[in-house]
Structure formats: C-alpha cells, structure tokens
Amino acid sequence: MTAMTSTLTKELTVNRSDWATPPADADGWIARAHEVAAILATDAVERDRAGATPTAEVALLKEAGLVTLLGPTEHGGGGQNWITAYAVIRAVAAGDGSIGQLLGYHLLWFWAARLVGTREQIAAVEAAATQDRWFFGGAVNPRDSDVVVTDNGDTISYSGRKSFSTGSNVSDVTVLEGVLSTTGEHVFAIVPSNSEGFTFHDDWDNIGQRLTESGSVTIDNVTTDWASAAGFVDKAFAPRVYNSLNVPIIQLVFVNFYLGIARGALETAVDYTRSSTRPWLHGGFDRAVDEPYVIDTYGDLLTKLWAAEALADAVAVEQQAIHDNAWDVTAEERGNHEVRVAAAKAQATDVALEITTRIFEVTGARSTASKVGLDLFFRNVRTHSLHDPVAYKRREVGRNLLIGELPEPTWYS
C-alpha cells in the first residue's frame, strides 16, 4: 500500500481488544461488520482516489475476524451460515463497496472446497484457512479461454491467462480452475498466491470498485499436487448437483453488496440533506427536509430498498436450506432456487442504480463536488452491475413463469 495517512491506516494501529473474542451469535457478527463499515466509511473517498492496493483494508477484515466468519468454531472460526454472511457483506459494502466485494468473493472461495471437494479436503482446507486466516482470491473468469491443466503424474500444472482475478494480489491463496488437457474435465485447486508462475498485473483501472484488485493474471505452469484437485480421488471426479451452486452463491453476494452500496448511498445522502442541502428559493420552505418533493423522493427510495432487502433475505433463507442438504440436493431444487436468485439480482440492480442516481435530485447541485464523494456509490454499482446482463436474469424468471423452464447450470445461471 502506498504511503498515505488515512483514517483507516490510523485506526489499524489501535489495539482493538474488543475484537479479540469472536462474537457469540449472528447479531454480534453483523454488529461487528457495521463497526468495520464505519471505519471504512471515514475515508472511502480518499482511498478510492488513491487507488492503492487494499492491504490495510484486508488486514482490517482479518483483524475483525470476518474472513473466518464461515469457518468451523473448533478452529477459531465464526461458525456462521450464509444468511449471516450475506448480511455481513451488505453491512461492509455500505461503508466501502470495493471491500464489500472483496469480502464477498473471499467467502465464496473459502466455501469452494465444500462445493466440489471431498469430505477430507473440506475438513483440511477449512481447518487451515480458519486457523491461519487465509484471504482468498480467484482466477476463474469464464469469459476468457480456459486455463489448460496438465497431468504431470503426481502433480498438475495450470497455464493460461485470466483478464479478471479479483482479490488475488492481496490474497494468501488463489482458487484456480482449468480444463484437463487429456479429458476436458474441469479441475479446481487452491494454491498459494505466491506460487512460482503467477504474475498479477496491476491493470485494473475502471471507474468503480477501484480497490478490488480485479486486474488480469498470467498463470505460467503453476504446479500443485493432484491431492489439491478438488473432488478428485485417484484422478477421478464424482459430480453432484451441489457442485453448480457457486453461481447462485456469487449472484447473492452481488445482490448484497449492491444493496449495501445503495444503503450507504442513501444514508450518506440523508446526512448531507440534513446538514447541507439548501431549500429551493421559490419553494417557500426554510429547510430542505421540509420540501415535499424531497420527502417523497426519500420515502420512495427507502421503500424500494426495504423491498429489495426483504427479497434478498428471503432468498438467502431458501438457499441455506440447500446448503443444509448439500449432499442430496436435486437439480429441480437447484433450478427453482436459481430463478429466485435471478429475481433478487434483477431487483437489487435496478434499485441500487436508482438510489445511487436519484440521491442527487434531493442533495442539490453542490453535492456533486468531488470532495462530497456521492458519485462513488453510483460508480461502484454501475461498474459491477455490468458483470452479466440483468436482462438475462429477468429472462430466467419470465421463462420459468411462462413455460416452467428451469435454468440450466452455467457460469452465469
């Protein structure tokens, strides 16, 4: 991280003895996530402008214990489920959308062993990841050509390039995925991010989510043991439906950090309207908070946010039932759930974009000053919401309603 005297950097020098013990329940973890968000929010605009590698921010997530939220309690983890995880992601994203995304992606990749690993691999990975507080990155962008996996006998090697690799430059381990050159089978593995053959390129230069370290990566003969190949036993893979749940999980991660960003935008705008927005000189009101159109706009935006949050929460509960039945979930259960995830994604995208745009209508022209930073919320949502077309999410919902079609598992559905 480049030299900077930000509030965050100062906060990290404080001995946070209240974080030494993990919270006892979900409410405690969510409260801690709000504490982290409050720290991040104090200089989010400054850090976005600096564009420095978020080393201190990841250290903050580790210090707060959020990186081990899903880890087994016997190894010092939070022992929480995805219902809590989504609420935590949403809370952190309200303070800084980039860090909310980093946390969300990390939690997905932390869970990757459960998605495709054997029971023995799951236990081993989660023990090590929790005890050592690994931070996960991933080099699995499906829009690029497949990484080639070579069977070397006792080891496998990955070679290729991915144009996006969120978090890997600040990660301890990276999830790799590629296609075995001999069989065409997909092979996932978790490897140290400092492994020989990785080159993380500092080329993420987008208008939003600027601190997610989402630049490209070159993978040149990165080698690991066959034992690291998730779900493989004696070089054979036993597929199950749960393998494909990575997409519904990551889409709900998106939903929740979009809604977190929207919540942060709305709360920041409210504070600005109360303290700084001037009433319209021809409106007849002494305070902006008394302007009827201001009241109506805020009421409309909060109502829509509450509705989107309620749907997201309901779908998270539905997904948890699938996690609880991971070894026996059916294709129909998975498909019906993906339709609901698609609906939540479409609504969250629309609501977050509307909130982060319309807040300017009720904060006034002076709120567009760079130092205010309201544009950060819009830039963050607009950038990531282009990850995959929201029209195809509505298509999944519409085709299910009209003809009962269930989405085929893909990298995006």
TrEMBL record:
Protein name (record): Monooxygenase
Pfam families: Acyl-CoA_dh_2, Acyl-CoA_dh_N
Keywords: Monooxygenase, Oxidoreductase
Domain Acyl-CoA dehydrogenase/oxidase N-terminal: 40-122
Any one GO MF annotation of this record: monooxygenase activity
Alphabetical list of InterPro entries matching this protein: Acyl-CoA_DH_C, Acyl-CoA_Oxase/DH_mid-dom_sf, AcylCo_DH-like_C, AcylCoA_DH/ox_N, AcylCoA_DH/ox_N_sf, AcylCoA_DH/oxidase_NM_dom_sf
Residue ranges of coiled coil: none
Annotated Acyl-CoA dehydrogenase C-terminal domain residues: 253-387
Gene3D superfamilies for this protein: Acyl-CoA dehydrogenase/oxidase, N-terminal domain (1.10.540.10), Butyryl-CoA Dehydrogenase, subunit A, domain 2 (2.40.110.10), Butyryl-CoA Dehydrogenase, subunit A, domain 3 (1.20.140.10)
